[in-house]
Amino acid sequence: MQRQNNPNPQDKKPNNFFNQNPILMFIIFAIIAIVAFRFIAPSGELTKLSGAANTKNINYYELKKLIENKEVDFVAIGQTNIKATQNIGSNKTIYNAQRVSPDNTLIPLLDEKGVEYTGYNESNWLSDMLFGWILPIFIFFAIWMFLASRMQKNMGNGILGIGSSKKLVNSEKPKVKFDDMAGNVEAKDEVVEIVDFLKNPERYAALGAKIPKGVLLVGPPGTGKTLLAKAVAGEASVPFFSVSGSSFIEMFVGVGASRVRDLFENAKREAPSIIFIDEIDAIGKSRAAGGMISGNDEREQTLNQLLAEMDGFSSDSSPVIVLAATNRPEVLDPALLRPGRFDRQVLVDKPDFEGRVEILKVHIKSIKLSKDVDLFEIARLTAGLAGADLANIINEAALLAGRSNKKEVEQSDFLEAVERGIAGLEKKSRRISPKEKKIVAYHESGHALIAEITKGAKKVTKVSIIPRGLAALGYTLNTPEENKYLMQKHELLAEVDVLLAGRAAEDVFLGEISTGASNDLERATDILKAMVSYYGMTDVAGLMVLEKQRNVFLNGGLGSSREYSEEVAQKMDAYIKGILNERFEAVKESLRTYKEAIENIVKELFDKENIDGQKVREIISEYEEAHNLPTRLVEEEKEEA
Predict the structure, then answer these.
(1) What is the distance, to the nearest Å, from the Cα of residue 459 to the centroid of all Cα atoms in its chain?
(2) Which of 191-195, 546-550, 604-608 has the lowest mean pLDDT?
(3) SS3 217
(4) Smallest Cα–Cα separation from 324: which of 267, 280, 286?
(5) pLDDT at position 594, please?
(6) Which residues partner with 462 through β-bridges?
(7) Is the pLDDT of residue 125 over 80?
(8) Please, what's the largest Cα pairwise distance for the chain?
(9) pLDDT over 50 at 12, yes or no
(10) Which is the most buried residue in 305, 376, 430, 574, by most CB within 10 A?
(11) What distance in Å separates the CA atoms of residue 319 and residue 201, rounded to the nearest whole number?
């Protein structure tokens, strides 16, 4: 997105501190006045009492004695106290004495000795009240008003701005068009009619047609739901009010509902317009689910207000379209999804091969590419990645080229960026011993060989024994088959075999197993558990579904709900354990059959640390030809024929 510049920069007010903070300015001047009035020495004769270096307390008669001896220069007489000054050279002393009353001899004595004197008021009720009561209270309220004004300025209008959505809503007219997007052809086709309605609402009104008030964009994270919503507003050239669902939730009851009302009022004033609520599941969770028990729950009140607002405006008179995005549609309240509200759901899914190529073309426009860059190869290696992942790979490749002082981004930079995105950063500083390196080499060779000889398994792209990521000491990259949405039972079992092959290779060729297969075993167990509980592929429960998967867009994000007895759980555990042991023994037997091929792969890994899938296939093919073994490729071609 490009930033929109201020069309009238001359209208911008100067950033003057005192213009923006008049209350604070008044407080500062008030404090200065208090200090000046309270602590600066008084004018007139009493100034002679200021600036003394020494102050002494004496009794009344000692003071009179000093006066008789002409040892004082000035006397100030109060109602109960008397102050006198004595100047000796550059030193000045003030004497304080308590007055004895009645005594009519002091004044005549001062006149007789020629000592200058004056009277002073020891107590001033106006000054005491002003400085003791009024000004402190005034300063307190001034500071409170200043803080309140700052809160109001930061949060918007209303009572401290709490109920306003002004600062929480991003209002703009996006410049994004459908041509700026790639990989979401079907999703764009679904929302084209919304653009046409916003441009020509009278055409639909004349026919009596009603455009959907709400459109829900669903899909995995990073697939471009927000970008698609902006493109709709950009194509229609209408105001775009975007806000996150979590922005409506506050600690104060009723604030969320107030913000929803404020948002819709602003959108109606700018109609035709689009409201976009990102992560709507933050406020739109089902009220029947856990978490919303009380009728006074803040989230429930916010949801009720959203439902009321979507019912309260007519798209014919003031066309306001509400777009929302979520990757958790299964948790939304049914009232949100009924006709008349979000009655249309648009799937924004991960791109296929052609879509990835188009997305890569969009993101490389500003990148200087070498002639050896093959976008089709990059798209083939990034199957299953979303648009945001592809954009990150393009940027990572450019950064890698920059670190190497290259003038162009080469294919090797893209391949390294793909590996970083899938397997993590290469840990060259993580030094492993020759013994561990040997274990890793056999482990990864086992994965690679079983992946190549097992029917239904994914082909190998690369094998490495260089540590990457947080804990991986080696890795085997497999290329998933393109445009594949279903998996058969033999393909699931093939994936289990590949996962068990690392542990099996350690057992067969090293005679001892290690901790390196922990993640492999976990994933293999999850696959078999899904075959039992989700897919009905076993005899444990037959066709009965034992668990309901809650989310199809977040892998393992929300878990599942268990709906079976303890007896069934025991049968499931026994079945999974038995299949794992059975497949483990079968994989070990296959590895023994291909012992020489495994040794050749391990030798290549020790020499080069990285080998590609083609090299693995060459080693296996040579071994199969030498021993007259049928290859997986031949078997699959026969089956297809």
Answers:
(1) 36
(2) 546-550
(3) strand
(4) 280
(5) 93
(6) 477, 612
(7) no
(8) 142
(9) no
(10) 305
(11) 8
User: What does R_g of the chain's alpha carbons equal in angstroms?
Assistant: 41
Q: Are the beta carbons of 309 and 201 closer than 8 angstroms? A: no
DSSP H or E segment with residue 240: strand 240-244
Least Cα distance to 416 among 339, 468, 485 occurs for 468
Measure the CA–CA gap between 437 and 251, rounded to whole angstroms: 55
- Residue 181 structure tokens: 């997007």
Q: What is the pTM of this model?
A: 0.66
Q: Any idea which residues carry the catalytic annotation?
A: 444
Site of tokens 């878990």: 559
Phi, psi of 117 (to 5 degrees): -145, 165
**What is the C-alpha to C-alpha distance for residues 492 and 532, in angstroms, rounded to an integer?**
12
Separation between Cα atoms, residue 591 and residue 450, nearest integer Å: 8
Q: Write the DSSP assignment of 105-127 as a string of letters.
A: SHHHHHHHHT-EEEE--S--HHH
Q: Provide the residue type at 247 as one letter.
A: S
Q: In this predicted structure, which of 433-442, 535-544, 553-562, 581-590 has the lowest mean pLDDT?
A: 553-562
For the cut 70, the answer to whether the pLDDT of residue 37 exceeds it is: no
Supply φ then ψ for residue 547, to 5 degrees: -135, 145
Rounded CA gap, 52 and 448, in Å? 96
Identify the residue whose tokens are 């050896």.
Answer: 372
